[in-house]
Amino acid sequence: MSNDRYPKMYQQVNEALAEPEKSEMLLRCMKRGRDTRKVALESLPGGADFRDDVRKSKERCIDNHIELKERFIKNVKKRGVKVFEAKTGADAIKYCMDIAQKRGVKNIAKSKSLTTDEIEFNKPFIENGIEIVETDLGELIIQLVNERPFHLVFPSVHKLTPEVAEIFSKETGEKVEGNIPAIMTAVRKYLRPIFLNAEIGVTGANIGVAETGAICIETNEGNARLVSSIGSCHICIVGMEKIVETVEDAMLMVLAHPVSASGQLPTTYVTWMHGRSPLGEGEGGEPRESHIVILDNGRTEMFEDPVLRESTYCIRCGACTNVCPTFGILGGHKFGYLYPGPMGVGWTAGVHGQDHAADIAHYCVSCGLCKEYCPAKIDMPHIIAEVKYRDAQKNGYPRVNKVMMGADKAAALGSATAPLSNLALNNKPLRKIMEKTIGLSADRKLPPFARKTFMKHFHQRTSQVTDPQREVAFFVDVFANYNDPALGLAAVDALEELGCKVIVPPQEVSGYPYIAYGDMGSARKTAAANVEKLIPYVKQGIDVVAIEPTASSSLVESYPVLLRDNQDARLLADKTFELFEYLVRIEDETGKTPSSKLSEMFVSQKFGFHCACHQRPLGSGKGAMEWLRRRGAEVELIETGTCCGMGGTFGLKAGPLGYELSKKMGEKLCTMFKEAAVDAIVTESSVCSIQLAEGTGLPVYHPLQLLGAGGK
Amino acid sequence: MEYEFAECFEKLSGVAHKVDSEKAAAEKIAAICQEQDARCIALAGLPDSLVSQIEGLCSDLTVLKEPYATNELPGAIDKADLGVTGIAFAMAQSGTMVEATTNDATRLVSSLPRTHIGILHAEDIVDKYHDGAARLREVTEKNDSNLVITFISGPSRTGDIELILSLGVHGPAACHAVIIDTQN
Known about the structure:
Chain A is of the alpha/beta class.
């Protein structure tokens, strides 16, 4: 498996790049998901705060999962429902098959259930001559053509109207016109007898409620209502992790799921089934019964795994797939085993095995947006990094990934050997050789190295502050140190202007590439070293300010996770700030008006701001935009809501799993910038700027570069 | 509250009507039947007084009502063009009607026909979505055996083909809420 993993992934990416129409539909679907979610959040009093509630509820329920499952079972049985605890998928299928065969059943109607997809439920029934029909329209379409879901919420989004009409014409033997109303009429007519004649109805459950013994099924089409009410036997298959404690917990999940998936408050229909009800009154009909199969299938091991445990908070809303840049190009058939996209990596590792998970984990570019959109705030970037790490323990790292993880050392060397190194960077034939040997894309225009680093400049410089109001520890990372020391110095000037005495303590690089490529050992070592070096300053009440978005996010978001239970890491995170967020705050606190102004040449220009993904959990670039506006700049945020496609160093790599995919991922955003009638782009990220400059042809600046020579 | 409920419900492609009495509700139902050209209607979970008023006003239609004979189901209700069910309570913030029943025939009445009408009382509308939890628990505690509670926020919808919103793929393509408000 390991030896051919990368060639296979390259092939998959190449195939996806050759089918842009599939991705086009998927990207529209994802964008709509993000846009409608945004509108829904505006209608909620606390906006995205519900994520904290969901997180707390999930943490509590998973912590108590053993007791809650027992309470759920007790209350379900009280209502006359039979319960079966299935250790494996095969156990679950056998239990259901026995029921079907004992009852001599020929027809099963089914509503959408990812848990049944997980265990490939349908196949054995069909093999045993039992008709089992998916009644959710999207699931039905892909069942008829024997495909897997392309998207979690919209499984058949890659099928356009004419093809769907063709599928139903073939299935029904009657010509179905190629328009949606005609298809709807045909589907209703096709499915109605399937609903009415179903002997068993199989549903999943979005939630099990321990307090009341209810299961909760959410749909928009209402198909689960018919599936669960008509057949004399109802079987519900529910994952162990779906059991929550109270009605309030359940109500919260019923809201969080559609808000995140499609921007609805609850879905059109939510069915809370308690026990099995009779159908009509009087004699006749078969005895009605209900079974709940509680599926383990690896979940117990997931609960016990310190990293995968968090995956079990997943409520299957698909929000992570709506924001994942690679998912948008590859789709669920390629970026997925049975579970797709970012959530799919952890779940595949948990229920289908590490090898299958590693097959898809390397598509992740570590932009981290999935975590920002997840209603349960699941740290998918960390889970995926861990899956990459476990893979590397067995199969090692590909050379190009090792090169990218050593980018800081290369930058140190490049700086030490400048200007010679810069000649090499600009030498096409040499770059071609580098592409072949170390995998660095020859198509990327890289920023030149500076011979004299920021560190050297800074230590030869005298502070301008005579009466310091506070001290600030500056975190510089790779780019401002080795490539653009002037930028680092401008940041120091800006801090000093506000009365901050700037200290540059001994420090490592942020080490984020270690996380991105799954070298968790080195990531932890780097994190620990930085915490150790910076914490003495923090403990003296000195704030840490970082200039690179990824560096801020490493210190604030990643280190506390990498160094679990390390109080110093937590403290450092609390006291680390993004540069502009910090500058604006001090301006507000001190009431100082900016003396620095925009450079003459920029005064009448219009700027489009790009927010780097790693800023989203921090200030989302609001600080930089505000800081620029205070200096008279006309600046507007331009965003697709997802990543520019660079993915840190991912886009520097050559080939399909690097430059080529990266370019494709950035297309939409670059088009937006080009169509926005802006004169230039502003971003704080040194890597996003490479992608945006190449993709738009527009000049790209760091906010500090817009200041005039007179202003500091 | 009725106003907020109606506004949200209509955003979800539902239609809300406010009436001032049970009699007016029956008239509204009859009017909708006529509009939809319904020939056969099914009723469930309604007070006897309302059932007899509907029967009176819809004497030219086939009116199916409880008790439904088990051995004729689900076929009998599948013949109905329109179903009317009683609503236990509603949540204004999300435009959600909540149906509670101990017989699955009621669920068929609100999910098989092309049109569904829910009948609710203005005083049973709670303001916020999360206020629904207490009502839900109350209903659950009253029924310690079988019970199905259904949130209904508009007609059956799908966007599975090219993300284009289509109504009524399986269940109701039209969903009405008739709100009886005797206070104002």
